[in-house]
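Q: Could you predict the 3D structure of Cystatin-12-like?
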Amino acid sequence: MLQKVFQLVGLIVLGIHVCSYQFNNIDKHMKYFAISVEYVVHKFNEDQDDEFAYKVLQVWRSQHQRWTWIFLIDLELGRTICKKYEEDIDSCPLQHGPGVKKVRCIYIVESLIWITQFKVMNSTCIQT
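A: Sure. Here are the predicted C-alpha cells for Cystatin-12-like:
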C-alpha cells in the first residue's frame, strides 16, 4: 500500500514538472512521435527484470514541446506471453490469469531521430 502511495506521489510530482515544459498535443501517429514510442517501449523492456515483453495497449497523451523534439509520452503497457527479445512483440497476445500486469508510464524524451539518438529526460511508471 505504501509503495502505491509513493508511486502516486511520483506521478503527481512528474505532472507538476511536466507542466513547466508547456507541451502541446500532437497526432500520436506522427512519425517522430511514433518512433519515440517504439524507443521507450524497447527501453522499458530492456530495463525490466521480467523475462516477458510488454507492448503498448494505449497512448493516453501524445505531446511535444514547441520548437523542440522533446516529447511527452503517456502510455499503458501490457505484459505479453512473448519473451522480451522476440521479433514481433506487437503481435504477441497478452497474458491472462494471475500473471497479468499492466503498467502506466509517462516519459519525457528528447528525440534526435536523424542521428538515431534518444535521451529519456524523465520517466515514471506505476503498475495498474
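Q: Anything worth pointing out?
A: The longest strand covers residues 52-65.
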